Amino acid sequence: MLVVGFPAGPLEANCYLLAPEDGGDCVLVDPGEDIGAALDAALAAHGLTPVAMLATHGHPDHVASAAEVGSRHGIPLHLHEADRPLLAADAGEWKDGIVPLVKGPLRLAGLEITVSHTPGHTAGSVTFGLTSAEGGRIVLTGDSLFAGSIGRSSGADGELVRSLGAKVMTLPDDTVVLPGHGPATTIGQERAGNPFLAGTGS
Predict the structure, then answer these.
(1) What's the average model confidence in pLDDT over 117-140?
(2) Looking at domain 2-197, which CATH architecture does it have?
(3) Is 39 within 8 Å of 108 (Cβ atoms)?
(4) How deeply is 41 buried, as exposed, middle or buried, from its count of CB atoms within 10 A (0-12, 13-18, 19+)?
(5) 166-202 in b/e burial notation, b at 16+ Cβ within 10 A?
(6) Are 128 and 140 in contact (CB under 8 A)?
(7) How far apart are CA 187 and CA 183, in angstroms?
(8) What is the pTM of this model?
(9) pLDDT tens string 41-55
(10) CB burial class (10 A; 0-12, 13-18, 19+) of residue 62?
């Protein structure tokens, strides 16, 4: 499985391209601010064609380029319905290109992507899980889980930690975590050393 990551905008949100391999269809996760040039370079370098966008949540630093990219490539944005109100008002009619995310697998660009609702950072925050043909696992956590930390919670006290404990920290230790900001980590590293997650998961 091919994973290409690059930072976007002043907050350096991580955008990711996911594909089975070079030279085919791909999925763009979290089309953040001003990604045009970086996206074009990554697509050209790997011979990729985007067929869909996925959003871990609806904050602007993760979806600001969705309307532009969606219109240019003719592709939809998959977003949890609870985060639809967070989209900028100037998204206008392009909002018709939004596909509500639902629990369960998505099959896009030759990939099977597991969607888990993990509210806390936002009401509609989700994580995306994938397993490569070789058996390696990754989970894209947006702003819910970072290396050594967790996201700011906008929900009820403890909601984010409960979501992570139930949906993310139950994954195997060797699962690679691709967060919305900062470096990659693993579930095992976070289980052992993340002070916000003591006693969560299994």
Answers:
(1) 95
(2) 4-Layer Sandwich (3.60)
(3) no
(4) exposed
(5) ebbbebeeebbbbbbbeeebbbeebbeebeebeebbe
(6) yes
(7) 13
(8) 0.94
(9) 999 999 999 999 999
(10) buried
